[in-house]
């Protein structure tokens, strides 16, 4: 709809107010899919800041409150949004999931699925750099495994940081099968880069 061009003319605080007024954070998921398809067609593209505000308003509460696998509508909306605005999406959602205490099993599965199937290589590297900024935990190991599963060539500085992090935190994972699988994956996928 032409009215959506207003999204390009809002300040971040105005955009938050508009999202609140439209109750986008709690709108039915089929409408969320339609709204995200409209965003794909929006021209010009949203600014980074506006896309970050929308990522937070549309998805943050939904993703952090997942207690079971996301619905197909939510997955379609997430996939659609992150295909167009991967960096603001990762900065808002991935960062929030990483900082969330506790197991977060559904959030971890969702992140793995996004890394494996939706994100472009540069966005996968962004996810990896975000993970390496926080202390490793059991819930993050499958996400790292998904990153390595993409078989992308990592920039040397990112690979060095990954190897250093795995070495430094090894004592904390002395009985972890996931950690052992991750180290094996690093040695397998990056064997030409790891000495």
UniProtKB/TrEMBL annotation:
Q: Name one Pfam family in it.
A: FA_FANCE
InterPro entries associated with the record? FANCE, Fanconi_anaemia_gr_E_prot_C
Q: Which GO terms describe its cellular component?
A: Fanconi anaemia nuclear complex
- Enumerate the Gene Ontology biological process terms: interstrand cross-link repair
- The record places domain Fanconi Anaemia group E protein C-terminal at 1-191
Q: What is this protein called?
A: FANCE protein
Whichever gene encodes this chain, its name is Fance
């Amino acid at each position: 709809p032409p009215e959506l061009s207003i999204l390009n003319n809002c300040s971040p605080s105005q955009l938050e107010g508009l999202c609140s007024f439209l109750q986008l954070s709690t709108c039915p998921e089929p409408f969320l899919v339609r709204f995200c398809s409209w965003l794909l067609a929006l021209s010009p593209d949203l600014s980074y800041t506006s896309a970050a505000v929308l990522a937070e308003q549309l998805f943050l509460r939904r993703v952090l409150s997942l207690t079971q696998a996301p619905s197909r509508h939510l997955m379609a909306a997430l996939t659609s949004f992150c295909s167009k605005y991967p960096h603001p999406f990762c900065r808002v959602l991935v960062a929030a999931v990483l900082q969330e205490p506790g197991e977060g099993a559904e959030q971890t599965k969702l992140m793995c699925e996004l890394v494996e199937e939706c994100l472009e290589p540069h966005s996968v590297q962004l996810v990896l750099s975000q993970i390496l900024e926080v202390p490793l935990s059991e819930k993050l190991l499958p996400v790292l495994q998904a990153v390595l599963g993409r078989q992308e060539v990592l920039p040397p500085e990112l690979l060095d940081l990954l190897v250093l992090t795995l070495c430094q935190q090894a004592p904390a994972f002395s009985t972890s099968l996931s950690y052992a699988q991750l180290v094996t994956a690093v040695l397998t996928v990056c064997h030409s880069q790891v000495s």
